[in-house]
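One example copied in:
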Amino acid sequence: MGFFIVLSILPFFPFFIVYWAMYGWKKDKRASLRTAMDVTTVFLIFSVSALFNLTFDSNFGFYLTLLLILIALGLIGGAQNRLKGKVDGGRMFRAVWRMAFVLMSFGYVLFTIFGLFRYLMKQM
């Protein structure tokens, strides 16, 4: 459990570890990048949720993250159903998962900067 917490605090470590392991195994940069993004998203979700909770003195961060992911799944599933008449669950989940990686990465940077700024202001 402690190792998972360390990787959640510093989610760029699992990204680089998985990327280099996959690249060493498959020798495919694109597949390595995708796999690293998919694995890192789990750590980013927990990390951003914890940073949200610390920043806003809340316990709602994880639930908000899950809610946003579920809303995105519903929106993309609805769009697929309107456009193609059927929902491809694998493509839908993969699109939301990769979108979550991008948004959680942005959230991680934003909450980290905001948290550091808030900490420095309290110290003055």
